Amino acid sequence: MCKLLVLYYSRHGSTQAIARQIARGIESQPGCEAVLRTVEDLTSHSSDASEPVVTFDELANCDGLAMGSPVWFGNMAAPLKHFWDQTTTLWVKGDLIDKPACVFTSSSSMHGGQETTLQTMMLPLLHHGMMVLGIPYSEPALHTTRAGGTPYGATSVASEHNSALERDEAELARALGARLAATALKLKQ
Fold this sequence. Notes:
The chain is an alpha/beta fold. The chain has one domain: Rossmann fold (3-Layer(aba) Sandwich), CATH 3.40.50.360. It has seven helices and six strands; from the N terminus they run E-H-E-H-E-H-H-E-H-E-H-E-H. Strands 1, 2, 3, 4, 5 and 6 form a six-stranded parallel sheet that branches. Helix 1 crosses helix 7 (167-188). The radius of gyration is 15 Å and the shape is globular. The termini are close together.
């Protein structure tokens, strides 16, 4: 069984919605299991999400990683960055080297900094030696989406009136999850 960690921080549920679609994509691949986890909120030292808080052992032992964050001023959210700032032991041991990874985000506007946020999330993954995957243009929804989705990763635009994913956004998130799972399976052979 290939276990893929879907790690995210979500304050209002939009990033969590993408995480769940990515998990569906992962589990569409036979022999793959999605493990949904979040990180502690820095202000309350807990999480309001329905998923448990990730452990360093879960990260070290996963076969691949999908990581998501809301856009915070064009950057990943502080709780997620704080988590990665504590992974030096995994980095020294090389626990994540050659594992596939992808990133996803949500923002409140189309030009809120989605692509820069995706790029900031890639940096710790690259430093850990992970292989970062995007969404290829062979995915039809990447050509038709009007509410999110980039070759860098799955995205969505959420507003106070609508936190549900649009059809194309959900399709792209599932495709990214399926691609991550298929790659992890190939690497395990």
